[in-house]
Design brief:
Porin, mainly beta, four-stranded antiparallel beta sheet, 2 domains, eight-stranded antiparallel beta barrel
């Protein structure tokens, strides 16, 4: 009888454990369904040769170049859970692209380099798909579009020349692709790390690199090239904890 009693207790405990595991699994699956989450993000910009980060200029006796050296993007993000595995995401952010440029005259021996920043703002809209990788961890992939806005041109002077970046348009569309991993805590929000590729449709800006001929009344010699504006970032994000809207509506009023 003692043996049968022990076996009965073991079966009850086992069934209870399995039921609890199923309940936790189901609650984790629907954790993002019906949830609107607000987050903050910071994204260092990386310059890779694959993304055409350098533009070269040339004309008789003159050479120059402008190259993306990196930058920083930051802003806020809003995520809306549509189903158990799909969400949409939008937000607004600022990006500061940092360029290094050079200007040289082979005849006079003049050569100088400097840096210039180009500021833009982005409003992306992407669709995310999740894949569960652990009890609270998820991989996600996102694809969508972005409205890229450029508030002004930019310029930087040199001793015998200057560079001027003309925005191509005040606002233009771009494509956004993202791959990342996130850890969803029970009450402390979501921690996310990933990477984003952003590429505008068409050139972002036109660069004019000008040399002043100081021996001939500062006569200007201009060279012109296009900047495509594509970049890759490392994404670090934090989303604040939010309860599902359905559960919030069903909470009893105090």
């Amino acid at each position: 009888m003692a043996i049968f009693g022990a076996m009965s207790r073991w079966i009850v405990v086992r069934r209870g454990s399995v039921g609890l595991a199923h309940l936790l699994f189901a609650s984790a699956l629907i954790a993002q369904q019906g949830v609107t989450t607000f987050g903050l993000q910071i994204k260092p910009v990386f310059a890779l040769p694959y993304f055409e980060t350098i533009t070269e200029f040339t004309r008789p006796s003159l050479t120059g170049s402008i190259e993306l050296n990196g930058g920083m993007a930051f802003g806020m993000s809003v995520r809306k859970g549509l189903t158990k595995t799909i969400s949409i995401e939008t937000g607004i952010g600022q990006i500061q692209r940092r360029y290094g440029f050079t200007l040289s005259n082979d005849t006079s021996g003049y050569s100088e380099s400097s840096t210039i920043r180009y500021v833009g703002y982005e409003i992306p809209l992407t669709a995310l798909v999740y894949i569960r990788t652990g009890e609270r961890s998820y991989m996600n992939a996102a694809l969508g579009f972005s409205a890229d806005m450029y508030p002004s041109d930019a310029q930087q002077e040199l001793e015998e020349g200057f560079i001027y970046l003309f925005r191509n348009q005040w606002v233009q569309l771009g494509v956004v692709g993202n791959l990342g991993w996130e850890y969803r805590t029970e009450k402390s929000g979501i921690f996310y790390i990933g990477a984003t590729f952003h590429r505008p449709f068409g050139d972002m800006a036109i660069a004019d690199l000008t040399y002043w001929d100081v021996d001939n009344g500062f006569f200007p010699y201009r060279m012109r090239g296009a900047l495509d504006g594509g970049y890759l970032t490392l994404d670090l994000r934090y989303y604040f904890h939010e309860d599902p809207e359905r559960a919030q509506r069903n909470r009893p009023k105090r």
